[in-house]
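User: quick one, fold this
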Amino acid sequence: MFKKFSRSIRWRIGNQARGKRFAASPVWPALKSYENRPAKNDLEEFFDRNIDGPGIWKWRHYFDIYDRHFSKFRGAAPTVLEIGVFSGGSLAMWKDYFGPGAKIVGVDIEPACKRYESTDVRIFIGDQADRDFWQGLRREVPKVDIVIDDGGHLPEQQMVSMEEMLPHLAPGGVYLCEDIHSERSSFASMVHGLADTLNNNRNQTAGTDPERRTVVPSTPFQSRIRGIHLYPFVAVIETNELPRTELVSTKHGTKWEPFLS
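Assistant:
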């Protein structure tokens, strides 16, 4: 058993190294000039107008990621939980972007951040690595559509927050963790492990329906999770709006192998 486990670890590490070598190889063609950059979305426009007042500190490429995954919630009165309030500027950005009715929930370890509370903003003070804190927050906030982890940025903090809040996410929700700043981040490794489980087809069976080629009963994770997206410094996990009970490969057509008959 130990030898089998050891071979599996060596295989995984070897393929990770292969991927890194491929990423660092000279096969990637240079893109043309960045002059034709797409127009700024509303989040980036808000950020650029925010010259004075409460600070917002973001990597520029984050705005496109936000808009890609969050735009469906605009005007839908979502509950948005942001871990890491800091100077409070992003709270106003989310309120402006999601529109009237959006409920913004901020989490920070600094008690002074409580001052940012308002009619549409609730602030909870606590340590994002404290599981008891999250248990209490879930009782107070029974429905969360979006989680944005911009907190302490330490992998252990990110892992605990995701373990506690990803299962709590509403159907069709989005979990976004930003500022993953290391190739050897244990949080990134955890996300890669989650991605591996999305490919689980160990219970694959032949379909009883003539149109079905293969059927894979969904694991609880596959039933709940729609997809995992990776970007520079960012991981995004989306949940399904409805349970996915099975993964089905369907065949249509009448002509199959041999192709030249």
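User: anything notable?
Assistant: The helical segments are 2-24, 42-49, 62-70, 89-98, 131-140, 155-165, 186-198, 220-224.
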